[in-house]
């Protein structure tokens, strides 16, 4: 089968190579699927660079999220019948950037009929992260104001739609007019181009000086620091990640004086500590998708020949919407 494999760390455009490799065999607790579509995520770039927390031995195939068709279950493993369309996470080192991939049996979920393959492939990591951040960690309430950073990115775009579906008012922050347009298409009530406007002043103006009730921050760095200047009384800042490359340090006296909360979200930890909650979230997301309240905005589809460049562009922050890989593209 064809697969994009990494033999050593480096930039995605340099180390992702199309190769012929044997089709993987599922072990106990694994399911073999034929890849229909795979969403490209920032962790895929980190895997190429060798800086992700998971470090598979090379050569390996990245691709952490996919929609596929069940082919075979490993020995003694329960799985949906062959031919069932499913979505979920891939089992590295046999990731989704290939014609066939392995999935952990406990990370296989039915793909909603309301979504196509590209959209279903994008429903797992980003939307699960947004769901847990907004509902479980921040306890978002209807009518509250949510400030979403990187609103046109993978997790940010999911957070915009999920916040709107929960009845919140959304202020989305994006970098540049193209990304600002995407955030608006996703449903953000107010969009701030951070290159042209100060989101702190916009949030204060839009909330009558009160500030945002919830801040969804996958960026860190200056985005986090400035968010503390426009957080509401009893507001919640949910820390998702540090795409800026800078991990902020916050003086806790400021948290005390302004009476707000800092909440961390490591979604992957739920997969180990409370996997039953992943299934609950998937059922909730499927219901929202079936009602048309959430739908991943897929902006680009690439095949084997364009994937290395696509992962590089995502790593460089130049993609908008969701970029997906399809073996048939």
From TrEMBL:
Listed InterPro entries: ADH-like_C, ADH-like_N, ER, GroES-like_sf, NAD(P)-bd_dom_sf, Quin_OxRdtase/zeta-crystal_CS, Zn-ADH-like_protein
Disordered: annotated segments: 1-27
PROSITE patterns: QOR_ZETA_CRYSTAL
Compositionally biased intervals (Basic and acidic residues): 8-26
Residue ranges constituting the Enoyl reductase (ER) domain according to the UniProt record: 10-325
UniProt-recorded name of the protein: NADPH:quinone oxidoreductase family protein
């Amino acid at each position: 089968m064809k697969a994009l494999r990494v033999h050593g760390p480096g930039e995605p455009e340099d180390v992702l190579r199309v190769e012929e490799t044997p089709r993987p065999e599922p072990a106990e607790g694994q399911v073999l699927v034929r890849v229909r579509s795979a969403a490209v995520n920032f962790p895929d770039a980190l895997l190429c660079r060798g800086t992700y927390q998971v470090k598979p031995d090379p050569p390996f195939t990245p691709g952490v999220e996919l929609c596929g068709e069940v082919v075979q279950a490993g020995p003694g493993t329960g799985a949906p019948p062959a031919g069932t369309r499913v979505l979920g996470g891939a089992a590295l080192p046999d990731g989704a950037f290939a014609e066939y991939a392995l999935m952990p049996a406990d990370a296989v979920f039915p793909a909603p009929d309301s979504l196509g393959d590209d959209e279903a492939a994008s429903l797992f990591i980003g939307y699960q992260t947004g769901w847990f951040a907004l509902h479980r960690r921040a306890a978002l309430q209807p009518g509250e104001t949510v400030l979403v950073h990187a609103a046109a990115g993978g997790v940010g775009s999911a957070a915009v739609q999920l916040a709107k579906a929960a009845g919140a008012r959304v202020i989305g922050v994006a970098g540049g007019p193209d990304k600002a347009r995407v955030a608006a298409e996703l449903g953000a009530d107010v969009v701030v181009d951070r290159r042209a406007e100060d989101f702190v002043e916009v949030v204060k103006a839009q909330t009558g000086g009160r500030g945002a009730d919830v801040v969804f921050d996958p960026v860190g760095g200056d985005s986090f620091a400035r968010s503390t200047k426009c957080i509401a009384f009893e507001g919640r800042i949910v820390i998702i990640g540090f795409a800026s490359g800078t991990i902020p340090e916050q003086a806790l006296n400021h948290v005390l004086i302004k009476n707000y909360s800092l909440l961390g979200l490591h979604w992957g930890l739920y997969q180990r500590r409370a996997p039953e909650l992943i299934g609950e979230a998937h059922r909730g997301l499927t219901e929202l998708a079936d009602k048309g309240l959430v739908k991943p905005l897929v902006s680009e589809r690439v095949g084997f020949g364009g994937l290395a460049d696509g992962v590089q562009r995502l790593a460089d922050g130049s993609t908008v919407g969701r970029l997906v890989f399809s073996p048939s593209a």
